[in-house]
Write a structure and sequence with these properties.
Strand content: under 5%
Largest sheet: none
Number of helices: 6
Number of strands: 0
Oligomer: single chain
Radius of gyration: 26 Å
Structural class: mainly alpha
Order of helices and strands: HHHHHH
Helix content: over 70%
Length: 156
C-alpha cells in the first residue's frame, strides 16, 4: 500500500511537471515575439537610424508615414482577397475556359502592378524625408534593405 502511494505521488509530480512545461511552451508559442519577425518589421527603421542617420524629427515623420502605409496596405489586401475569390469563382463558372483564365491573369497582373507602384511611392515618401547628404546614402543603399534576407527566411 505504501509503495502504491509513493508511485501515485511520483505520477502526480510528473503530470504536474508536464502540465507546467506545456503551459510554458504554449505561452511562448502564442505570446512570445519571434526575433526575426521583429527584425523584419523594424528593418527599414533600423536602416534609417543606423545607415541614413535619421534624426528624431525624421523618425517621427517616418513612423507617421509607416502607420498610414500599414492602414492602406491592410485595406488593399482585404480587397485583394475578395477580388481573388471573385476571380476564382468566375473561372469555375466559365468551366476554366482559356479566356476566363487569361482574364483572371490580367486582373492579377494589374493588381500586382498597382501594389508595386504603391510600395515604390511609399519609398519615395520616405526618401523625401532625407537631407541632401542622406539622399546619397539612401539612393545608393535602400535596395540592400529591401532584398536583404532575414534570419528564419527559407532559402530558395
Amino acid at each position: 500500500m505504501k509503495e502504491q502511494l509513493n508511485s501515485n505521488k511520483i505520477f502526480i509530480v510528473v503530470i504536474a511537471l508536464l502540465l507546467l512545461s506545456n503551459i510554458a511552451t504554449l505561452t511562448m508559442l502564442f505570446w512570445g515575439k519571434k526575433p526575426q519577425q521583429d527584425d523584419r518589421r523594424n528593418a527599414m527603421r533600423n536602416y534609417l537610424i543606423k545607415d541614413v542617420r535619421f534624426n528624431d524629427t525624421q523618425l517621427a515623420k517616418y513612423d507617421s508615414i509607416k502607420t498610414v502605409w500599414k492602414e492602406e496596405a491592410k485595406t488593399f489586401f482585404d480587397s485583394l482577397k475578395v477580388s481573388k475569390q471573385a476571380n476564382l469563382k468566375a473561372i469555375g463558372k466559365m468551366g476554366f475556359s482559356d479566356s476566363s483564365i487569361q482574364e483572371a491573369a490580367i486582373k492579377a497582373a494589374n493588381t500586382q502592378q498597382m501594389m508595386e507602384a504603391n510600395m515604390l511611392q511609399h519609398l519615395k515618401y520616405i526618401r523625401n524625408l532625407c537631407t541632401k547628404e542622406q539622399l546619397i546614402i539612401f539612393d545608393t543603399s535602400f535596395f540592400s534593405i529591401m532584398t536583404k534576407p532575414f534570419a528564419g527566411d527559407s532559402k530558395k
